[in-house]
Amino acid sequence: MSLQRHNPVELSPPTGFSHAVTASGTRLVFLAGQTALDTEGKVVGSTLPEQFERALTNLLAALAAAGGTPHDLARVTVYATDVADYRAHAVELGRIWRRLAGRDYPAMAVIGVVRLWDDACLVEVDGTAVLP
Fold it and tell me: Is the pLDDT reported for residue 1 higher than 70?
């Protein structure tokens, strides 16, 4: 399996994402949206960074259960109930990402949403991985 990240000089410099990712491998893993729920189904954290950390931790746990690692992530979508708040915490969220998932960024998008399934959730993360 291999993922190659493409960040052409004609585009703005990517910060915390890759513009394009090509993938070759034998298995695709589609990861369901994960929020800041603990093992009892309760929301962990009241701030966006706290919830992002738990949501990403949950996503990576699902990926690990399928036999993958953060390096295998080809695409991630972040759904945020307050994009301005997400942008305001971008540096901190980047530190959380690097600590949990490393420096290999997938193709990513952040999408503003009115609300998530659980009213108290501020962020949800889903993704696609390519495994050998």
Answer: no
Q: What is the DSSP letter of 98?
A: H
- 85-114 pLDDT tens trace: 999 999 999 999 999 999 989 999 999 999
Report the alpha-carbon angle 22-104-53, nearest 5. 120
Amino acid occupying residue 69: T
Residues in CB range of 70: below 8 A, 6 or more apart: 60, 63, 100, 101, 102, 104
Helices (H) and strands (E) in the chain, counts: 3, 6
Q: What is the pTM of this model?
A: 0.87
**Residue 17's pLDDT band (cuts 50, 70, 90):** confident
Task: Tell me whether residue 118 is exposed, middle or buried, using C-beta atoms within 10 angstroms of its C-beta: 0 to 12, 13 to 18, 19 or more.
Answer: middle
Strand, helix or coil at 34? strand
The most distant pair of C-alpha atoms in the chain lies apart, rounded to whole Å, by 47
Within 8 A by CB and 6+ apart from 30, the residues are 128
